[in-house]
Design brief:
Mean pLDDT: 96
Bound molecules: pyridoxal-5'-phosphate
Radius of gyration: 19 Å
Distance between the termini: 54 Å
Number of helices: 16
Largest sheet: 6 strands, mixed
Strand order of the largest sheet: 3-4-14-9-10-13
Amino acid sequence: MKYAVDENGFYGKFGGAYIPEMLYPNVEELRQNYLKIMQEPDFQAELQMLLKDYVGRPTPLYFAKRLSEKYNTNIYLKREDLNHTGAHKINNTVGQVLMAKRLGKKRIIAETGAGQHGVATATVCALMDLECIVYMGEVDIERQAPNVARMKMLGATVVPATSGSKTLKDATNEAIRDWINNPEDTYYIIGSVVGPHPYPDMVARFQSVISEEMMAQLSEKTGRDYPDYVVACVGGGSNAAGAFYHYLDRPEVKLVAVEAAGLGIDSGESAATSVLGKEGIIHGSRTLLMQTEDGQVTEPYSISAGLDYPGVGPMHAHLFESKRAIFKNITDEEALQAVLELTRLEGIIPALESAHALAALGRIGAGPDEVVVVNLSGRGDKDLATYLDRFQLNGK
Ligand SMILES: *Cc1c(COP(=O)(O)O)cnc(C)c1O
């Protein structure tokens, strides 16, 4: 596969494992075992059972009739919002918690920004009776109180990161410090296609169930197993990686990656890494990231906490550079309009992140005979307070 990872952990010139010496044993143990474990029949049987009966897969592929009429094309929504815990993240945490168990680990750590990955991790740890520690920036703990409450309810310990800007990148530093100090018994569940090899590849494989199901569902509904376009939002890039995965080497499928422009590309308040980023190393891999002249990571901004990340995973950096994927960016305002549009046309309240993908529908130029799949990565429950406020529905 041309766009998949190579044996050294690279996608073109991006990827690799740029890690401190002290993490080498952990990462190496995972690298040597992950493919072998994922292929074991017992592992697959348990994973498939959990995806079906616990997560609720396969998720529907829904033909959005009124939305299609509006854009004069044929739009299908891949309903990841219907997964247990409300987004695609659990596809990955279920896979990685089984991986941790196979490696004999007793303690799970994770970092989270918006809290969605923290909730998905705390959920599978409750299920598997494993200790769970989630690092989260102090600022994010305040901003994302409902998800903090869910994690606590699930029995996880939420540890505030109090250094730097007290957000996601600081939480990541804390998680890595913990991992270095507890190499024997601890497994680090990373929530997107980021981090040192083999994480980006492993997470992409766990999320690839999305495009695997799409192929079968499209065959049944349209008579061919591929669409003309797959559209997905990109924070770190895991839902997009899953939606693109089985189409990466099929050039007849146009892959559309949608980033958050925040208040606008030139506003200084943005998270559109493909436009604003430069090559560098973040979280152990070479990729595109937003940084200052002297290489300090820039604080990103988006109204959607899940897209508020200063980099993209190495697979996406390569898809951008090789022009295999088309990159678009969408402002806060455009995403909010797309939220209202989907809600009122289809009766589905999307997550703010997913709304960025929906907002790109007007920009791709799909024709009346073409088929577009939008990966609806999550549901909007977590964003309701923002919606009520921004749409002035409070007190009505
Ligand atoms: C976390 C999240 C994202 C962004 O993460 P990716 O790894 O880029 O998929 C997108 N949508 C939802 C609903 C999320 O929770």
